[in-house]
Amino acid sequence: MKRRYDIDWIRVIAIVLLLIYHTAIGFQPWGGFIGFITNAEPWDTLWIPMTMLNVWRIPILFYVSGMGLYLAIQNRNLKQVFVERFLRIGLPLIFGSVAIVPFHLWLLQLYYQRDNAYLPNMGHLWFLGNILFYVTILLPIIFFFKNRSDSKIRVFCKKTLSTSYSLAIVIFLFVLETLVSKPMVFEMYAFTLHGLLLGMLAFISGFLFMLGGEPFWKMLLKWRWLFIIVAVALFSIRTVKISEPVPHYLLAIESNCWIFSMLAFAHKYLNKNSRQLKYLKDAAYPVYIIHMVFLYMGSILLFPLKIDVAIKYLLLLFFTIGGSLAFYEFFIKRINWTRPLFGLKYFEKNKIIIKKL
């Protein structure tokens, strides 16, 4: 199957947005309550663009993960896909939970002069735990239908996905999820029932979007401007009524409209390879795993400085991205035994690639 470069670009963009968002948390007064090092002077106006990102930055990663699974099963059997996904997701999750997350939590303890404690946990890698869970329970079902190309359910799905009704169904299911899980805060995805169910819906939807093939993507392109208009309108309502709680079903609709528009525009303009993409698509995953360490190191160095809060934010963002990329380039990427710990394959030239099972 032809490689979808637009999906690679969306994954890269989503990781960059995650870094921008995580850096911004350090400049919010509530950042300390969710385990971030926070600056003494908050930057309140930064919260406005953060709220726009917050309703779709994580769901789109689940969508893309589902799309990635669809591509992964095309030339592999069930055992091959499961082993490949475990090595790519499970191994970095285990390593990160016992080594990366405890280290950046130690930096937090150091900054606030708390008692040192080794705290192994998933932390920001909770996303990987969710994906591994979805893959484990869904792969047998997926391969059951894959081996029955003429099954009525598969034919029905492909036919339905070529119509705009499919998007209405997807949005309805996301609205229904909020009514079932009743989250206290829509944007609290980590370690919540809401995040687990929403992530599974997005993961399955991403998989089905790929199953829909070119007719689905043509339909998505047709309605791309409507998605933008609806998303902007709903976000504008939130900014006007910022002191009032917005119903979660509206946030679910807005979230998916942002995502549908991004998928459509990326498919139209970014479905092409480049030197930059070749580098960034490999770097994105390791950078996601390691970035919290550099975010906390930068916070320790920069937050005591008496400089403008906006400049401090930009310096911290540059330090986080630059430090993570440098660590990837000079350590993760070049040392064979570290590559699998960050979701990368062994060097081919060393002939120790994991063999197909």
What does this structure look like?
- With 357 residues, the chain is mainly alpha-helical.
- The protein has one domain (5-350).
- It is 68% helix and 0% strand.
- It is built from 13 helices and no strands.
- The chain has helices at residues 5-25, 47-54, 59-72, 78-111, 126-146, 152-160, 165-181, 193-211, 213-222, 224-240, 248-269, 275-302, 309-332.
- The protein is globular and about 65 Å long.
- The model is unreliable at 350-357 (pLDDT under 50).
- GO terms for molecular function: acyltransferase activity, transferring groups other than amino-acyl groups.
- This is Acyltransferase.
- InterPro entries: Acyl_transf_3_dom, Glucan_succinyl_AcylTrfase.
- It comes from Emticicia aquatilis.
- Keywords: Acyltransferase, Membrane, Transferase, Transmembrane, Transmembrane helix.
Poorly predicted tracts of residues: 350-357
Question: Approximately what portion of the residues adopt beta-strand conformation?
Answer: under 5%
How many strands, what sense, and barrel or not for the largest sheet? none
**Structurally, how many domains make up the residues?**
1
Highlighted features:
acyltransferase, transmembrane, 13 helices, disordered C terminus, 357 residues, mainly alpha, acyltransferase activity, transferring groups other than amino-acyl groups, membrane, 68% helix
